[in-house]
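hey can u run this one w/ NAP bound, need the structure tokens asap thx
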Amino acid sequence: MPDRKIAVVTGANRGIGLEVARQLAHLGLQVVLTARNLQKGGDAMRELEKQKLPVEFRKLDVTSNDDAQALAQYLREQHGRVDVLVNNAGILPESSRDSGANASDALKVSPVTLMEIFNTNTLGAVRLIQALVPLMPEGARIVNVSSAMGALNDMGGGYLGYRISKAALNVVTRVNASELSARGILVNSVHPGWVRTAMGGPGASRSIEKGAETIVWLATSPDADETGHFWHDRKRIPW
Ligand SMILES: NC(=O)c1ccc[n+]([C@@H]2O[C@H](COP(=O)([O-])OP(=O)(O)OC[C@H]3O[C@@H](n4cnc5c(N)ncnc54)[C@H](OP(=O)(O)O)[C@@H]3O)[C@@H](O)[C@H]2O)c1
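ok here u go:
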């Protein structure tokens, strides 16, 4: 196994996650591309392999404790460490589910939908951090892909579950940044902007490449040496 840094990306079969995996591999990291669907994850890995990029695929549903533990065991046995964790997997089901004139109306969204979003967008990151931090050396980095929709300083209406999940993900960032600073592990949140993915839609204002850029910068750059902050386009933004 070549002496490369090891990077794990969740929800990496498409969208921002796949592009982050591609950019990290392009920078020379060994990327463990993860996805909940075997077929889609395998296809994504083969797409990057065709570009001669160093990538491997492991199945990971971020709502599964068993999957998180199995990934940790694989990484321990195959690589012995993890240098970068990008918690990217996320869902925004409120716009397409629940009855009512406005499916994202805070008075109508169901508790089941709220719990599902929280379990994926927030607890998914918690599961991976708990499973992989024991494998992280000093200097390792955790990047949580958050959203300005979780920023309390500019909170609007709609998308209650998504907003809760991303505000809480920012808490996950702050608490872990504080607890892990003594071990030299950096933990940050990123708002990627409004990006043209399945989630962002075709009318979004920025490319996937641009959406991935600050995530990759926080994951790798010697200039990005701060911890416990919320970032957008390489600048700190308010929580
Ligand atoms: N696009 C935007 O404008 C925007 C703006 C702000 C923040 N973000 C954040 O950026 C991140 C990536 O979003 P995107 O725009 O790239 O969306 P996307 O194209 O919908 O991709 C989401 C990814 O997450 C995966 N995923 C969902 N649930 C999962 C689970 N339980 N386990 C593992 N993987 C799971 C999906 O896998 P499947 O293919 O199996 O569904 C997919 O690979 C999300 O956290 C999102 O909240 C996006």
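The domain at 6-236 is CATH 3.40.50.720 (Rossmann fold). anyway lmk if its weird
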